[in-house]
Amino acid sequence: MPQYMTRRSAVSVIGGTAFYSAQPAPAFTTEPSPVAETLQGRVQGASFRGVHIFRGIPYGGGTEGAGRFLPASKPATWAGVRDATITGPRCVQGRGNIFLHPLIGEYFAGGRPDRLELAKQTDSENCLVLNVLTPGLRGKRPVMVYIHGGGFTGGSSALTLFSDGLVHEQDVVLVGVNHRLNVFGYLWLGGITSKYAVGNAGQLDLVAALEWVRDNIAQFGGDPADVTIFGESGGGAKVSALMAMPVPKDYSIDPRSKVARRCAPIPRTPQPSPLKNCWRKLV
Asked: What is the pTM of this model?
């Protein structure tokens, strides 16, 4: 396998979803560090080949201890500028990291020479973080929110960190979400105590992430009225589940928007979608 593959010869494909890196280039170069404003505080990312990359931005509060198995709380605010150049934690899960695999890791990372650094992740119950990749902090670009696969038990949003080529060439804002998985995200304990009657904390994490996107993505050059959610494998199943979930009371859909015209709104009670082969778009 070549030391650094081109974007056409090495396309990262997992369950039908493809990401690729841009043409061969040297490792990270020194570029001005971008700083963006969120409702919780300012975050500083890094720039690579014309794409601003923000890693590990919190979209929810702590989910261990008293917060375990419960819907996510709002993220805490902070003073000053938060470092968003380190990959955030993924949910506690079994051992393994496909990007570090000695045989196929380079393939799934698109041949990136910095894959070992980007793929480093810690496991934690406090995993409600997301990545944002954008060509610029100004403008109103379409937003793509990637929900990772892993069969509801494993995985992370690390794939988005290797996707600067997609972001640059398509002029979109890409968001990758980590959320609670396995027993931390999908174990229902409502039969034991009413405290955990809600259930599906992992799916509610995704709703919280979409609410963060709605409230903050404009500061990253994205259009909050043009957001597409998509996923592969287990991520595709999570998208389908989101389509059957009730719309949060404060998550409005403008019937005049192209988003609402092209895709049916999320029903308040589970029922088949009236549109087929439609990428779900949320306002």
From this structure: 0.79
